[in-house]
Automatic annotation (TrEMBL):
Protein name: Dipeptidyl-peptidase
EC annotation from Swiss-Prot or TrEMBL: 3.4.14.-
Function: Catalyzes the removal of dipeptides from the N-terminus of oligopeptides.
Signal peptide: 1-21
Amino acid sequence: MKKIIFALVLLTYSMGNIARADEGMWLPFLIGRNYEDMKKHGLKLTQEQIYSINNSSLKDAVISFGGFCTGEIISNQGLILTNHHCGYDAIAGASTPEQNYLDNGFWAKNFKEEIAVKGLTATFMIRMEDVSQQVLKELNSKMTAEERAKKIKEVTDILVKDAVAGTKYEAFVRDFYDGNEFYLFVKETFKDIRLVGTPPQSAGKFGGDTDNWEWPRHTADFSMFRVYAGSDNKPADFSDSNVPLKPKHSLPISLKGVKQGDYAMVMGFPGRTNRYLTSYGVDQAIAIEQPKIVDIRAKKLEIMKKYMDKDVAVRLHYSSKYAQVANYWKYFIGQTKQLKANKVADKKRKVEEEFAKFSAGKEEYAGVVSDIENAFKATNDIVYIKIYQSEFVRQVDINSMVYLYKLAIDAKNAGNDQRFNGLMDAAKASAEEIYAERSMDIELETLGEVLKMYIRDVPMNQQVGITKSIGVDGVDAFIARVKSSSVFASKERYEEFMKNFDAAKLAQDPLFILLKDLDNAYQAAVGQDAIKSAGEKLARANRLFVKGVREMQPNKKFYPNANSTMRLTYGNVLAYDPRDGVHYDFFTTLDGVMQKEDPTNPEFVVDPRIKELWEKKDYGQYGSNGKLAVNFLSNNDITGGNSGSPVINGNGELIGTAFDGNWEAMSGDIYFEPNIQRTISLDIRYTLWLVDKCYGATNLVNEMKLVK
């Protein structure tokens, strides 16, 4: 009995080191700062095996997938594994009602069957470098915001040019810690990407919006693509003569499975966090910004769904758009709720109080917090018009197309022919896509309904032109006029107009006039002297606040906000307790899929092929003890953009694919919640079971290096 008690004490002590989530999105080229801690968590690799410029390393198997997700290379023939929702647009775009890959799945049995995907890219990171010293030595505290920005661009343009001289690589410089540091990134982008395989969305999107951001989860959120290159193994435009890429590194795949406490490391391209946001920003987000985004997106979803339910072709064309809108509709619902529940504003205020004590009497930091407070007060009145510029002008597709024409005409009037030509090309490309894939019924109904919301929400003194003159009651009549006379409301009218493009005639088009008015109203609102001054003061104050917070905690290791650059986060496989009396285990199984099955609900339909093998318990080498693991939890620190990221064990082997965060920690992009923040990942054994046993694409598994 004493031995058992002693063993339990040891277990409790050892688990205490990983009972909290591991905060930090670290830059791989700086992992020396964390390496000893990583080893304590279970890492067995050397630093060089994770990030190396001269030799093959883990970084060489991790790609930015399309610029919006992450993927990993899992074979020596350029095979990509990413999330189903990351490949969703490509899968839907390749589908027709007759060849419905989105609903039925698709598996290429050889290279020739793989489907070319327009517009997708795979970007590899070649190297990273700290160039802070080169940039900061050219800056001083007396510079205006405009002078500072101009000098930064001047210096970084030279750094970028020098970094890629004599190569075909690309490079860019980003600022970190709100402009306190600057890092250079050199990359290589491949443009010939082909769809290799996807499960039907009943598996890849199992649980739909109901389960999104939730645990327990039972989703096969994966799809497969392949990188193609020229005969020299370098990027090339699509060609039948291109060959599968020979990567510098591909991830071996572990079949050993995961258990509580196992080391877990995620590498990827997280999009955006705002961990240094102050309480004033949190208050604005909760009270004004996020509820309005939710309202607008709910209306968009309502209209899309009405038409998608009536027509399969419309559903295929809008599936990706609907999923994108729905994902962040629910995200903002959850974030608002958890910012309140987790008392994030109060936590931020505590940091600000500590900063006030630290900075007292220091001239450099005088007025920093008050400048931040006053800036948010000044911008409260323009939050709505900024939201509508993003959610309405730029994200309703017909509006975004017309907006490009508006920008083009502005460039022409300003005498900038080069910009005019570029914008015209972009507008024509947008129009081609919209008239091929969008429904004018959806576009124009969305236009009308969200326009009514705009007129109600945006202060009247910020509105100009049409919105101010017609009012809410005049919107229906205005939309009727758009339908009957706008060149943009009909493909036929548009094509006829473009045969003899006439800027003067365009200027009389009702939809063009509306977009011009909306943009002019936005520019006037954000261009006010008081608003511009507040923005400049906020940028300076944020930079100094972050600098000061780091100085006042000299022994703490700080990481920068996510900004779509490669990051590494490490931790362990770990369960959690979301609230009193509730415990969530660290994994789910295929049994849970069957428990959720509901043939009457499209979100919970189970593919008969999956059900048949489940009934037989035919799991092959991918099951364990009569069970098949589906999803698992780890305490890694991720955000949007990490979707599709590899989850890697201590030996550098792939154990899963990250695809979501958990509901209770939806505030995590602004304040990391160490006790409850979790990453939800797809167990690689479920992926391989579906590919191999369920859908018969054994040819793909044969490419991979499996570690048993």
